[in-house]
Specification:
Elements lengths: L2 E5 L3 H12 L3 E5 L3 H20 L5 H9 L1 E4 L2 H4 L5 E2 L1
Parallel strand pairs: 1-2, 1-4, 2-3
Helix pairs in contact: 1-2
């Protein structure tokens, strides 16, 4: 299982998506609202920036983590290939 769908891009959802993506999983982040998806991705990016500034990860690791996340507003598309849905 390398594909995880996370339903909801709010506080918990973006944190779960971040953790899975940083650990090499392909994540489908799903929310009915495009603005919520953008906020969720912005939060993940800011958290990764903080990790880069503390030298916990490299810029390349940040970019790899972000590339592991895809966003969807259609739940049926988002869960299509998921081995786990959270």
């Amino acid at each position: 299982m390398k594909n995880v769908a996370v339903i909801g891009a709010g506080t918990m959802g973006n944190g779960i998506a971040h953790t899975f993506a940083q650990n090499g999983f392909k994540v489908q982040l799903i929310d009915i609202n495009e603005a919520s998806l953008k906020r969720g991705l912005d939060t993940i990016s800011k958290n990764l920036d903080r990790m880069v500034s503390k030298e916990a990860i490299t810029e390349a690791q940040k970019q790899e983590t972000l590339s592991n996340i895809s966003t969807f507003t259609d739940i049926s598309e988002g869960v299509e290939y998921a081995g786990l849905v959270v």
